[in-house]
Amino acid sequence: MYRHLLLLRMLVLLGVISFGVFLAFQYGFVDLFVSADRSYLSSVILTMYIALTMHWVWVGWLLSRDINDAASLDGGSVPSGTASLTSDLIERLESSLGGARRERLLSLYYDQLMNRHAFGHFATDVLLRLGLLGTIIGFIFMLLPVADIKDFDGAVMQRLLASMSGGMAVALYTTLAGLVSSTLLRFQYHVLDSAAVDLANRVSTHVETRAGLGVDET
């Protein structure tokens, strides 16, 4: 069994996303996003996504370490010197595997695993809402020049349409940036959620098996 298999899968996913970003740069989509967005919200959204992806990698590393510790349970012990949630749980259960205490610790263990991802899910909603905020700002930019119309001269209408198209560009690009970044980040954290659930099930099965093999319950 490979060590840090989850981390390797995450790196593959990150490579695919990075390749997509490279293509976006190559075809000028990123430059178009930045230059056409007068509100600069697209740049803020993309910067936040990069920072949140770094947080995702860090949380994935912690979870991968817990998965490695759980895999070592098949050998009967957790490596010494580790400070993961899994090793901490097993150390607490070494002295007693009483039914009520065991259930409480397992429940706390699962909550701690999933709580690592809570910030990521919150940030996903923030990115989406920033995109929707950009939509509103874009429509405001688009409608502001209408109040300045004094006559319906051709040159005036041409300037009006140019201003309105700029506002529409803000609305569309910020919405697209928010949707794409939030969807990608949601999928990234879904990968961690699935791995965390599998880890919790594995640890719970191991603890229950040990309890069923003759460890006295209190």
What this model shows, in words?
With 218 residues, the chain is mainly α. Helices cover 79% and strands 0% of the residues. It has 7 helices and no strands. The protein has helices at 5-26, 29-36, 41-71, 85-94, 99-115, 118-143, 154-212. Helix 4 (85-94) packs antiparallel against helix 5 and helix 5 packs antiparallel against helix 7 (154-212). The chain is elongated, with a radius of gyration of 25 Å. The chain starts with a helix and ends in a 6-residue tail after the last helix. The relative contact order is 0.15. Residues 78-82 and 214-218 have low confidence and may be disordered.
Radius of gyration: 25 Å
Q: Which series of helices and strands comes N to C?
A: HHHHHHH
Would you identify the regions where 5 or more consecutive residues have pLDDT less than 50?
78-82, 214-218
Q: Please, what is the oligomeric state?
A: single chain
Would you tell me the overall average pLDDT? 79
The rounded distance between the terminal residues' Cα atoms is 36 Å
Decide which structural class fits the backbone.
mainly alpha
Shape: elongated
- Percent helix among the residues? over 70%
What proportion strand?
under 5%
Would you count the extended β strands for me?
Answer: 0
* Biggest sheet statistics: none
Separate helix tally: 7
